[in-house]
């Protein structure tokens, strides 16, 4: 007569599964690095006394909902923003730039973010081309205001 084989149980012990899961969780939480989104790199001036600025020292830049750009009331294609800004900074002179000129940039709240960044970068390029400290003021336009 044959003896019945004793079958071994094929189960996995689960007594320490919770401990292992907890240790893995702690391990991944301590070793994971989260990338911080830096956003726009803007150096803000230190707090000081308020200075009155002449209206002639401000160049207004408007970015409309549809992505069109106006500088001092004139429509400017995006690829010509840097040249227009350089012309305003130099006022037609090739020798010295006007270091007092401030670009006041207003954007529609419905404008695409990429367009605003492109305009901002082109204005910064104009300042960097002339080796002039950047003076750009960023302001969102009110919801009711459309350009």
TrEMBL record:
Alphabetized UniProt keyword annotations: Cell membrane, Membrane, Protein transport, Transmembrane, Transmembrane helix, Transport
InterPro entries listed in its UniProt record: ExbD (IPR003400)
Record's subcellular location: Cell membrane
Annotated GO CC locations: plasma membrane
Organism: candidate division TA06 bacterium
Database matches in Pfam families: ExbD (PF02472)
Keyword Mitochondrion found: no
Gene Ontology MF, one: transmembrane transporter activity
Swiss-Prot/TrEMBL GO biological process terms: protein transport
Signal peptide extent: none
Protein's name according to its UniProt entry: Biopolymer transporter ExbD
Family: Belongs to the ExbD/TolR family.
Ranges annotated as spanning the membrane: 12-34
Membrane topology, record value: Single-pass membrane protein; Single-pass type II membrane protein
Disulfide bond listed as a keyword: no
